[in-house]
Design goal:
About 5% of the residues have low confidence. The chain has an eight-stranded mixed sheet with strand order 2-1-5-6-11-12-4-3, covered by helices on one side. Strands 7-10 form a two-stranded antiparallel sheet. It is globular, with a radius of gyration of 20 Å. It is mainly β. The protein has two helices and twelve strands; from the N terminus they run ββββαββββββββα.
Length: about 190
């Protein structure tokens, strides 16, 4: 069964499941992902994703590197049990959605920016126009990350903003060295 989960107040909650959860993120072909391993200097083509394998680093190789948190692995363990449905009072605290298609080993993750949360009156034009005062959270169906449960592999297009989901992921980001900055500033495109 399809499931939509939400992370709010440091906990995962069930939003929709079974017949109430329609297929989401259908424009992403999870069986045919083109990906390159993430490095701070790599760049993507339009249809490519970066990937990293999450897990504990080998201390002998990276003694000073922090471990990137893996909340989706925790969600996967929780899905084996019952996850409580998100209470109405936590809608405003939703940080991100996680969608899992029925029978799939993939989680599709979408951050929920503050602008996607509506707490005022709004008009719905679905069947009969009506005014609602209930909280509304907009799902854009634009995945910020993909996660393969079986391989603990995270796919993403942009590292910026994923720290809301994965603690310490910003350790993958690297600032330009002094030499790189000087070379960049000497490019002819920057001279007037």
């Amino acid at each position: 069964m399809n499931c939509l989960y939400a992370r709010a107040k440091s906990k995962f909650h069930l939003v929709l499941s079974a017949d109430k959860c329609p297929p989401l993120f259908s424009d992403i072909d999870l069986s045919n992902i083109t990906a390159i391993e993430y490095s701070p200097t790599a760049s993507l083509e339009e249809d490519e994703w970066f990937f990293i394998v999450l897990g504990k680093p080998d201390p002998s190789e990276t003694p000073n590197e922090l471990m990137i948190s893996d909340p989706l692995e925790r969600l996967h363990r929780q899905t084996r049990n019952t996850i409580e449905v998100i209470p109405k009072e936590l809608y405003k605290n939703i940080l991100y959605f996680v969608y899992q298609k029925s029978g799939s080993e993939w989680f599709v993750v979408e951050k929920v920016p503050f602008i996607s949360k509506v707490y005022k009156k709004y008009v719905s034009f679905s069947e009969q126009p009506a005014i609602f005062e209930k909280p509304l959270v907009i799902i854009n169906e634009r995945a910020d990350a993909l996660y393969n449960i079986n391989t603990n592999t995270l796919y993403f297009k942009n590292l910026v903003g994923l720290e809301v989901i994965f603690n310490n992921i910003n350790t993958l980001y690297r600032e330009a060295t002094k030499d790189e900055i000087e070379v960049c500033l000497q490019l002819s495109i920057l001279t007037v």
